[in-house]
């Protein structure tokens, strides 16, 4: 199994191990100058990033004093806006790369590694093609199609306004309305970029056009007074007890009715216009420079230069290993007939594991998930030396986007504590969540998974732009490692079905390696990928379809989970072998958690330095 990163990534990672070299040719003044130049370069990158992705500033609670005007604007998603953002970030990156990391103090070396590695990866796809979008509302995340069914402005903007834009006083209510008025331009700009891609030959597959259109139509369908943006704004006003709330609500209603809904309608009209000409091929291999784009996406999403063939083979190997483990448990529980996938399909529909698909059943499911999160919190001191102060709140996915949303996902807390972390769970159909699947999903999305990672990152003393960024492979790899950690520490000791749920979730991440590379490099069809997922995992067809369609629009993103987990597990084994009886799981976990949002090469270097220091 080849899990070596490429030479460029390795060289950048090595920089993080070195301290300032003060010898006969390097004076203290030289070191001070290098650090000052680096601080100026970081400030330039910070300004460029938050100016061009203002939603990220709001998410992090960056004040208007630091970044004036960001709270009133949305990202410019037009063709010119995308180009201006790329130019600004590229220019700032050149300055960062011109500074030798070896000349910096330790705290700055981490920042250097994070910014150079992640921006190099994120800007890579836009160096290959002139379509798509480099950044989203949350972080650096290249989308080859500017509007899709599960992300992009038609989904991200309503979610952002509902969960991230604060309305706690009259001033913030005014700011909200200014930003709401900018939604029209953001959507029109995204539509322009979408059309530019279509004209360039990067038209989405027909099934993606259909699903994206369905999301837009679902947003348009209710009257303005029942629109999700309006309803959430009214809730914010009432919660804050703002005087003259009705006047603010009335202004919002007029903006939504006159500007926002018509902008969605223009997107819907264009999608109806192009859907007949959209091809059915799922992979980006068919797009202009598609093969090079997929290689850049692998680099972007895995912090490595692995080939698609290597990733595919790793997936097949992991599928084989995990399937054997699942077979043993199934057999011990009396499920002996059929493939592992067929037996898991039977478990999916057993009434004893299902919640009623009504308001009462959904509320019970939410309460059970909250209990799982609370129970895990009690165990965390056994696995970690310290825990972040920010808490996590369980919420359901907004109904307008639930048909195309993942089964669950997580949003970071605000660094100042004004907003907790949010673990969203999709309740479009409770049958998607048999009870034996919920522990693993919750450990992944909340604790000890994404929330521990995200909340720890928010509490670090690092520049705001570092907190705004996230390595897909280390972040998702950590969350998958967290699932494994729960099993190793007895959370499934008396729950064989829960352990099956964990193994199926891990198998799912291995299947992703196979199907993502299958579609984007080996020219698998959507149907071939769905069939493979259903047969191997035992997922229901609807869930498998949603997953495969996600990979079609987020190329290589799904690779980060399993590849990241494997690299963390390899590091842990390295530490165990080196430290012997002195190895303590709490120390190892803390070493990784403290830098878990950093690129994987930096994490590897950090842990190896800790091992070397511990041996000394």
Describe the structure.
62% of the residues lie in helices and 3% in strands. It is mainly alpha-helical and 616 residues long. The strands form two sheets. It has a three-stranded mixed sheet. A two-stranded antiparallel ribbon has the order 1-2. It is globular. The two termini are 31 Å apart.
How would you summarize the topology of this molecule?
Elements: H1 7-15, H2 28-52, H3 54-60, H4 79-97, H5 106-128, E1 133-135, E2 140-143, H6 153-163, H7 170-181, H8 183-200, H9 206-220, H10 228-240, H11 245-274, H12 290-302, H13 308-332, H14 340-348, H15 359-379, E3 392-396, E4 408-411, E5 421-425, H16 438-445, H17 450-458, H18 464-468, H19 472-488, H20 496-520, H21 526-537, H22 541-553, H23 560-579, H24 585-593, H25 600-615
Helix pairs in contact: 1-5, 1-25, 2-3, 2-4, 2-5, 4-5, 5-12, 6-10, 7-11, 8-11, 9-11, 10-11, 13-20, 14-21, 15-16, 16-19, 16-20, 19-23, 20-21, 21-22, 23-25
Which parts are unreliable, with pLDDT below 50 for 5 consecutive residues or more?
1-24
Q: How many extended strands? A: 5
Overall body shape: globular
Number of helices: 25
Outline of the structure:
The protein folds into two domains: 279 residues, no CATH class; 264 residues, no CATH class. 62% of the residues lie in helices and 3% in strands. The strands form two sheets. A three-stranded mixed β-sheet has the order 3-5-4. A two-stranded antiparallel ribbon has the order 1-2.
């Amino acid at each position: 199994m080849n899990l070596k990163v490429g030479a460029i990534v390795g060289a950048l990672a090595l920089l993080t191990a070195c301290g300032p070299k003060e010898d006969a040719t390097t004076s203290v003044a030289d070191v001070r100058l290098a650090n000052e130049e680096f601080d100026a370069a970081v400030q330039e990158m910070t300004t460029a990033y938050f100016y061009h992705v203002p939603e990220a500033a709001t998410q992090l609670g960056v004040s208007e004093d630091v970044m004036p005007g960001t709270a009133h604007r949305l990202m410019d998603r037009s063709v010119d806006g995308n180009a201006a953002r790329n130019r600004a970030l590229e220019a700032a990156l050149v300055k960062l790369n011109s500074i030798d990391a070896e000349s910096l103090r330790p705290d700055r070396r981490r920042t250097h590694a994070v910014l150079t590695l992640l921006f190099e990866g994120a800007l890579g796809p836009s160096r290959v093609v002139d379509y798509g979008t480099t950044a989203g509302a949350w972080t650096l995340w290249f989308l080859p199609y500017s509007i899709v069914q599960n992300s992009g402005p038609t989904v991200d903007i309503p979610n952002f306004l509902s969960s991230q834009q604060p309305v706690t006083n009259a001033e913030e209510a005014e700011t909200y309305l200014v930003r709401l008025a900018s939604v029209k331009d953001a959507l029109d700009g995204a539509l322009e970029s979408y059309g530019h891609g279509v004209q360039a030959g990067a038209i989405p597959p027909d099934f993606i056009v259909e699903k994206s259109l369905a999301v837009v139509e679902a947003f348009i369908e209710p009257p303005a007074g029942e629109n999700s943006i309006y309803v959430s704004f009214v809730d914010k006003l009432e919660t804050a007890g703002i005087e003259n709330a009705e006047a603010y609500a009335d202004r919002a209603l007029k903006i939504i009715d006159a500007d926002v809904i018509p902008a969605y309608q223009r997107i819907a009209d264009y999608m109806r216009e192009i859907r007949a000409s959209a091809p059915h091929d799922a992979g980006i291999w068919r797009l202009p420079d598609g093969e090079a784009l997929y290689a850049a996406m692998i680099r972007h999403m895995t912090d490595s230069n692995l080939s698609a063939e290597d990733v595919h083979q790793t997936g097949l190997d992991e599928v084989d290993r995990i399937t054997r483990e699942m077979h043993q448990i199934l057999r011990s529980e009396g499920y002996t007939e059929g493939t592992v996938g067929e037996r898991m399909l039977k478990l999916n529909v057993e009434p004893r594991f299902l919640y009623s698909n009504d308001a009462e059943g959904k509320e019970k499911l939410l309460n059970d998930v909250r209990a799982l999160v609370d129970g895990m919190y009690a165990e965390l001191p056994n696995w970690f030396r310290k825990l972040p102060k920010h808490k996590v709140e369980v919420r359901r996915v907004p109904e307008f986007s639930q048909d195309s949303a993942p089964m669950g996902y997580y949003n970071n807390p605000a660094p100042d504590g004004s907003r907790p972390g949010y673990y969203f769970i999709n309740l479009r159909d409770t049958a998607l969540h048999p009870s034996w699947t919920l522990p693993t999903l919750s450990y992944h999305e909340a604790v000890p998974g994404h929330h521990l990672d995200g909340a720890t990152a928010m509490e670090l003393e690092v520049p705001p732009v570092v907190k705004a960024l996230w390595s897909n492979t280390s972040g998702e790899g950590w969350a998958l490692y967290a699932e494994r950690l729960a099993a190793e520490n007895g959370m499934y000791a008396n729950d064989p079905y829960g352990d099956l749920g964990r193994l199926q979730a891990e198998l799912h991440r291995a299947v992703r390696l196979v199907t993502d590379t299958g579609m984007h490099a080996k020219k698998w069809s959507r149907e071939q990928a769905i069939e493979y997922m259903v047969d191997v995992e035992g997922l229901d067809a609807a869930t498998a379809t949603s997953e495969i369609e996600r990979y079609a629009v987020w190329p290589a993103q799904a690779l980060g989970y399993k590849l990241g987990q494997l690299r963390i597990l390899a590091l842990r084994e390295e530490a165990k072998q080196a430290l012997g009886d002195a190895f303590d799981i709490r120390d190892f976990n803390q070493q990784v958690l403290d830098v878990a949002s950093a690129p994987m090469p930096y994490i590897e270097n950090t842990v190896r330095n800790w091992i070397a220091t511990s041996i000394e």
